[in-house]
Structure formats: structure tokens, C-alpha cells
């Protein structure tokens, strides 16, 4: 087992910055390169209202400090290969409660128990998850993987073929542009990504989200294409639910929220509140009350906690 574990530095979660995500900070220090947090703080001033990480800003900061990055559709075998090469991969996995996604570093694997080992920002701690469960969770975000390596090691990596590197990078750039309020530039970047690698479900789903924001019916086609390419792509089902809720097509909203929840019932607490609203409109008081209760269980610190409890009392 010890042969398949990387010794990663412990980086405090307090050092996390929206433009220098913890995972990138850890990987850069693993390679004995410390990216100045002051630079990240300066860039973060462009995003005063953003919560969570802006991964592309972190990637570009790493590249500025001598790293090469690859964003691709990975596999368990690829992760094991990277660990054995001494390269810590970053993966995007489902979130919990009020976080829909989170990034995690794979620190190793254990063949004796068939488990993937994940980085934990505390001394002598690791996470462990079975191969089967890991693959099921990872598939929800289409096995999104990132490698960040020193530029002088790129020859070790570039002899391999990666899937969706161009379109995934463009999708990260589009996400950054969207957060900067550059909607049209974000859409055109995603359209370029779609044309470059049309079988990437992440790009289709992200394009659907931007169209949905402007109430453009093209959103439906984009979400459906993402689902066609990956039937477990959670965000596309949730996106369709959001689209139909805004359109007041409550039966369809309930349908797609339910399909998202069937894929992962503990990924994103607020989806239960949305389904509860749809069920209320469909006169399903019992179902709505149940969903509001699950919402509060998963999001106990929700700002509308009191109001939702009052609604539950009225429904039961």
C-alpha cells in the first residue's frame, strides 16, 4: 500500500482563496513552489460577490509560476498511473449540502481494499472510498481531472493522449468570463469548445446554463445533449428542473429534479426546496412538506430556515 501513496504537504483550509484553490496550493507546494497568496488576493478583488473557487484563475496562477496544466476526462486506471508516476491528480466530485461540486486531490490508492485515497488538510489523515463508489460519484461530473506539473516534466505527461483537454480548458475559461459578467464572451467560448470537441457533456451542460440564465429555449437542447452523452450528468438534470420551474411547467420541473435526486440524493440540499415548490404547485402537499424537511436537514443554516419551518407546519 505504501508504494501507492504520495506524501502531500498539509495546507490549512484558512489559506484557501477563491483565486488560489486549496488543491492547487497543495499541488504547487508538493513541487516545492509556493504561489504567493498576495497575488491571488489581488486577483480576487475582481470577484467581490463570488463564493467558492474560480478554478481557472488558480490554474493560470500556477502556469504563471512555471507549471503546465491538463484538464481532461480521466479514468481510475489513469489516476493509478499518475500516482505511480508521483503526480498528484485533482478531480472534481459532487459536493454536499449547499455546495454542488468540490475539488479533491487523489493522494493514493490501496489495491488490497480496492479504495481510492484522497487528501485531507490535516496531519496523518486521508479519505478512503471504494473504487465502485468513487467511479459512481466521479461520473456525475464526467470524470473531470486536472494535472498540474512543473513545465520541465511535461514530456512525462504529453506522451499520453488526453480526452477533452481543449474543450475542458475552454469551459473553465468560459466560467471565469461569466463570473466577470462577460456573458457573450462566455457563450462564444463555449460554442468554440462545442465545435472543437462536441462529445463533451460538460460543455453542453454549461452552455445550457448560460442560455437558461437568459431564458433562451436553446437551454433544453443543450441539457438534453449533455444527458445523451452522459446519462448520469447531474447538473444537466438539475438545470432542466430549474428551466422548467422558471417556465412554470411544474410537472417537468418535478420530473427532472427527481431524476437528479435519483442520481445523488445528498449532493445539493437546495434542490429539495425547488422540488418542493414544484410539488406545491402540483397540489402535492405531502411531497412538498417532505422535500422542505429534507432541505432543512441538509441545509440547517439556510437563511430561510424559519420561513420554511412555518410552511411545513401549514402543510402538515
Give the topology, please.
Layout: H1 22-30, H2 37-44, H3 55-64, E1 67-73, H4 76-85, E2 90-94, E3 101-110, E4 115-119, E5 126-130, H5 131-139, E6 144-150, H6 154-158, H7 165-179, H8 183-196, H9 201-213, H10 218-229, H11 234-246, H12 250-263, H13 270-281, H14 285-298, H15 305-315
Antiparallel strand pairs: 1-6, 2-3, 2-6, 3-4, 4-5
Helix pairs in contact: 7-8, 7-9, 8-9, 9-10, 9-11, 10-11, 11-12, 11-13, 12-13, 13-14, 14-15
Could you walk me through the main structural features you see in this protein, from its secondary elements to its overall organization?
- With 316 residues, the chain is an alpha+beta fold.
- The chain has 15 helices and 6 strands.
- The protein has a 6-stranded antiparallel sheet with strand order 1-6-2-3-4-5, with helices on both faces.
- α11 (234-246) packs parallel to α13 (270-281), α13 runs antiparallel to α14 and α14 (285-298) runs antiparallel to α15.
- The protein is globular, with a radius of gyration of 20 Å.
- It starts with 21 loop residues before the first helix and ends with a helix.
- The mean pLDDT is 94.
Rounded to the nearest angstrom, the distance between the terminal CA atoms is 53 Å
Task: Tell me how many strands there are.
Answer: 6
Q: Give the helices and strands as they follow along the chain.
A: HHHEHEEEEHEHHHHHHHHHH
Give the fraction of residues assigned to helices.
Answer: 40-55%
Average of per-residue pLDDT values: 94
Radius of gyration: 20 Å
Number of distinct helices: 15
Uncertain segments of ≥5 residues (pLDDT<50)? none
Which class of secondary structure composition applies to the elements?
alpha+beta
Biggest beta-sheet profile: 6 strands, antiparallel
Overall body shape: globular
Q: Which strand order spans the largest sheet, edge to edge or round the barrel? A: 1-6-2-3-4-5
What share of the residues does DSSP label as strand, in percent?
A: 5-15%
